[in-house]
Amino acid sequence: MLLRRTLILAALAAAFFRTPLCGAEPAAWVDPFIGTTNFGATNPGAVLPNGMMAVVPFNVMGSDENLYDKDARWWSTPYEFHNKFFTGFAHGALSGVGCPDMGSLLTMATTGELKPDYRQYGSEYGDEVASPGYYAVTLSKYGIRAARRAEATATARTSVERYTFPAGKGNLLLNLGEGLTNESGAMVRRVSDTEIEGMKLLGTFCYNPQKVFPVYFVLRVSKAPRAAGYWKKQRPMTGVEAEWTPDNGKYKLYNEYGCELAGDDIGYWFTYDDLAEGEQIEVRMGISYVSTENARRNLEAEQAAGDTFDTVHAAARARWNADLGRIRIEGGTDDQRKVFYTALYHALIHPNLLSDVNGEYPVMEHSGKVGVTEGDRYTVFSLWDTYRNVHQLLTLVYPERQVEMVRSMIDISREWGWMPRWELYGRETFTMEGDPAIPVIVDTWMKGLRDFDIEAAYAAFRKSATTPGAQNVLRPDIDPYIERGYIPLGFYAQDLAGDVSVSHALEYYVADAALARLAEALGHEEDARLFRERSLGYRHYYDKEFGTLRPINQDGTFLTPFDPRAGENFSAAPGFHEGSAWNYTFYVPHDIEGLVKLMGGRKRFVEKLQMVFDEGLYDPANEPDITYPYLFSRFPGEAWRTQRETRRLLEKYFTVQPDGIPGNDDTGTMSAWAVFTMLGFYPDCPGEPFYTLTAPTFDRAEIDTPQGVLVIEKQGEGYVRRMTLGGKPLTTYRIGHEALLRGGKLTFELQNTDHK
Fold first, then answer.
1. CB distance 681 to 734 below 8 Å
2. Quick one: 554 and 662 in the same domain?
3. How many domains, in total, are found in the chain?
């Protein structure tokens, strides 16, 4: 029966994805260790595309031998490549984010004496292996291995771990007291000898103290233990009380207690005394953000009776091959193929499922209230990041998922009254700035995906674009933006970023430009004129003295003194968020022509932009300037600069090493940049259905789109000499979405020249 099921899975995998042109299945090219250091914040754990569950090795606490500790500095990931002390598998972790949260429900296997303190039970490790939907490691301290590994795999909402024990005594632990979150508090209850259930409180993402939420779980072991019970860290006591309490300030084991247990630092253990050499025990977990009942439903729906670790792993692998196989490449080096498919893999992790198998989910900003969706409800809308390219990639290649995400955003606005900015499991964290849902949804609609309520979306957009600041949660500093066309220093500085007025305004300009396009398309001509005019307010910030955008004081004068390089390397600088004036000055993608005029014409614009790259002013890890390389192609005779810079940036910052992402992946944004750039085109203005072309990396790429297969071919090497679309010559490097897909085949003819 199991063999037949495995064969069926293999057949399904073959039916639903086509082998890439280079000959190996797409998942074979993915290296999940890329981005796991240099603050890339990715991890090598097992996850499905856009899945709720992610089972991830946790190695950032418990040992002075670790290079990084989660509590020693700002830290946002459960795994760091250079650390060597393993304290369990975390469940439901995030990938590529800049703030700590999630990554809890820590499971661990040990041998010998039971020890509930993670500093004592943690183990050094080695022989790591990771691939899409799979992770394995050797726990050196215990000799716990399966084919020399302790393994983990996942479904959309559940996980399976498999441990192989040496002969004798072994333990399985669930630690509910630790994890990558600033919140505390949990509960666990024994259901049977082999099953427990409970919850843990998570949240305070980016240190928002009220943005908390529970994760519920059901955990099952495949073998009944000899003994089992709870543990709890006891509070420190003094005086006579301490003399009477042998567990004072220590972890207390509960051997005779069988009801539920709650507290800040608690856990549950299973102990086995009669293990045979090489005996395997599987640990299965289902999670939900609604209830323990739903966690159980998820587990039973996604792991059928008779499923083994291997069948779940095979299904995960097949799912990744199906998704990754929607883009098939030929040519390039092995390293380039690894970079490409790993980037695509990272771009498909978030946003992720929030709804359970029965459609239930936690209603936005209504703690304890449960909604029901007919489709899929998504979460982790890191929109300040992903509005720039991730959603454009989903719209192009995974349209069915993008439509569900747009519906999720619209439903969020119905439940809460506002569109999301950086939403996390039903809570708005207000991380970063802007109104980024507008360009995401406008972009989707403009590209022909329209199976959602655009009028409801428009009403929500107009609300955030017109509501006075005192009542506006998304644009609290909108009043001077409307009255003056810009936001001065000293008006709003109510978050950890400080006064970042220019960054706020720039995001509003981009959003309003997209809103103007939608208003015009829907026949709201007066609104279109209003929002289009507002989107041009960036001109107020342009300072001819420095040739950059410059913060403005309350009295209308420019900030003095002023250093346009202040803010580099994510240091604090008045007016700008996580960047310098150089990282923001060219970020007016909706009005490049107007910016050119301010700078004194095309020649001076190009020279200044080139200086940004030549003098190291470009920051590849900062979202506002990641479109910069593509701006050259707006001008006749300058497209070679785009080709040179994109090629250079790919070679320098996107590699097969653990630091092969230029800093925080930002829920796939950096990776999506690499995917588009290697394919040879990039969405250059959020909310505008256009791409800028550049020389592709691969000889041939086939992309499955709603309009059919888009083929991109490269002939020769070097710089673009000639381009054709559908066999007809192209004379511009900027092309509309529909025109590109209708053309069907984009061909680049390259030649080696000095520069063009």
1. no
2. yes
3. 2
Per residue, the 3-state secondary structure of 448-515, as one string, reads CCCCCCHHHHHHHHHHHHHCCHHHCCCCCCHHHHHHHCCCCCCCCCCCCCCCCHHHHHHHHHHHHHHH
Of 744, 51, 18, 706, nearest to 399 (Cα)? Answer: 706
The C-alpha atoms of residue 279 and residue 285 are separated, in whole angstroms, by: 20
DSSP letter for each residue of 316-374: HHHHHHHHHTTEEEE-S-HHHHHHHHHHHHHHTTSSEE-S-TTSEEEPTT-TT-EEE-S
The residue with tokens 């107007």 is: 594
CB 189 within 8 A of CB 199: no
d(CA 388, CA 378) in angstroms, rounded, equals 18
At position 143, the amino acid (one-letter code) is G
CATH number of domain containing 502: 3.30.2080.10
In this structure, the answer to whether residues 554 and 455 fall within a common structural domain is yes
| The token pair that represents 40 in the structure block | 């890339």
CATH code assigned at 126: 2.70.98.10
Please state, in angstroms and rounded to a whole number, the distance separating the CA atoms of residues 62 and 177. Answer: 13
Q: Please tell me whether residues 319 and 332 are part of one structural domain.
A: no
Domain annotation covers residue 756: no
**How are beta strands 745-751 and 708-715 bridged, if at all?**
parallel
Q: Give mean pLDDT, residues 229-255.
A: 91
**Which helix or strand (DSSP H or E) is residue 379 part of?**
strand 378-379
Q: What is the pTM of this model?
A: 0.95
At which of 270, 292, 323 does a domain end?
Answer: 323
> d(Cα 273, Cα 248) in Å, to the nearest integer?
28
- The rounded percent of the chain whose pLDDT value lies above 90 is 90
The residue out of 323, 355, 373 marking a domain boundary is 323
Indicate the DSSP class of residue 208: -
Q: Which residues pair with 136 in a beta bridge?
A: 129, 151
Q: Quick one: 622 exposed, middle or buried, by C-beta within 10 A (0-12, 13-18, 19+)?
A: buried
- Max mean pLDDT among 143-157, 337-351, 559-573 falls in 337-351
What digits encode the pLDDT tens for the residues 425-482? Answer: 999 999 999 999 999 999 999 999 999 999 999 999 999 999 999 999 999 999 999 9
pLDDT of amino acid 755? 64
Q: Which of 98, 101, 207, 103 is nearest to 663 (CA)?
A: 98
Instruction: Mark whether 358 and 306 lie in a shared domain.
Output: no
Q: Which domain holds residue 534?
A: 327-751
CA dist 183 and 53 (Å) reads 20
Give me 173's structure tokens.
Answer: 């632990």
**Do 427 and 494 belong to one domain?**
yes
Q: If DSSP codes are grouped into helix, strand and coil, which group holds residue 353? A: strand
